[in-house]
Design brief:
Layout: E1 7-11, E2 16-21, H1 31-45, E3 52-57, H2 76-91, E4 97-101, E5 104-106, H3 107-114, E6 118-122, E7 126-128, H4 139-149, H5 151-160, E8 164-165, H6 166-172, E9 177-179, H7 184-196, H8 201-233, H9 238-248
Parallel strand pairs: 2-3, 3-4, 4-6, 5-7, 6-9
Antiparallel strand pairs: 1-2, 7-8
Helix pairs in contact: 1-2, 2-8, 3-4, 4-5, 4-8
């Protein structure tokens, strides 16, 4: 069945797959997109000659994040496990994965990028998990960010929701390469040609599996506990529901601190 939201491009004689998430400009990580992306990661992994999987956003931005409308109390219990499964599928991908980021990379989009083996971005990129501003928190980021940039920096990013520009992202360590605006495609192409294509596909897969073992195992061991905290305790509070409702209704939230 053809994808309706993501697009897949075969590159370098089919040795690299590119997944483009959309539709622009927001490239929202909806439940439908989650299912398509998970299925595409599985399909790409089934090809023994595939050497790399690149994930990018359609247009100027990577993603504004998950659908806030799907976080309402009547939908979130179905959506959240699907989202966490998608993140798990990227973390456990046998093929190395690269997130190619331009523009805004927010919320669930940032968490998708964090699940990749590497993040390349240009200087237009800005990263954030702004969920706390809606009265909620980002479960995958709570587990993945400490691996990428340490506990202190990750807590600040999660608790404040502030944006991290590209130059700070590479200093903190969760971004691997930053290039000038407009040069990301050129630099990524050169990287693939020099460092990926000459390698054995089977060896790349085994090396990626080994390199991702710690973070993937930690995620698998803890995501259900954090998911339960979100669904059973956070979504039972008035403020979590108020924050989501206020965003949907385009108004400022009124916090009750309970």
């Amino acid at each position: 069945m053809a994808n309706e939201i993501i697009k897949t491009n075969k590159m370098f004689d089919g040795r690299v797959d590119e997944i483009v998430i959309g539709p622009p400009p927001a490239n929202i990580v909806s439940a439908a997109l989650m299912k398509e992306l998970s299925a595409q990661v599985e399909a790409s992994n089934a090809d023994p000659h595939k050497k790399l999987l690149v994930i990018r956003g359609d247009g100027k931005h990577f993603s504004f994040g998950a659908s806030v409308e799907e976080h309402t109390a009547d939908k979130v219990s179905d959506m959240l496990p699907t989202f966490h499964g998608m993140i798990g599928s990227v973390l456990s991908s046998r093929i190395p994965t690269v997130a190619a980021v331009t523009g805004l990379c927010l919320g669930g989009g940032f968490e998708l990028a964090l699940a990749c083996s590497m993040i390349f971005c240009d200087r237009s990129a800005a990263f954030a998990v702004p969920e706390i501003q809606l009265g909620v928190f980002p479960p995958p980021a709570c587990l993945l960010l400490p691996f990428k940039c340490g506990e202190s920096a990750s807590r600040r990013i999660i608790l404040t929701g502030e944006k991290v520009p590209a130059e700070d992202a590479i200093r903190l360590g969760f971004v691997d390469t930053v290039v000038e605006k407009g040069q990301l495609d050129e630099v990524l192409k050169a990287f693939v040609e020099e460092h990926i294509l000459p390698k054995s596909a089977s060896s790349l897969r085994l090396a990626n599996e080994a390199a991702m073992t710690a973070i993937a195992s930690y995620y698998d061991a803890n995501i259900k506990q954090v998911e339960k905290l979100y669904l059973e305790r956070l979504m039972a509070t008035k403020d979590a529901n108020e924050g989501i409702a206020a965003f949907v209704e385009k108004r400022a939230p009124t916090w009750q601190d309970k």
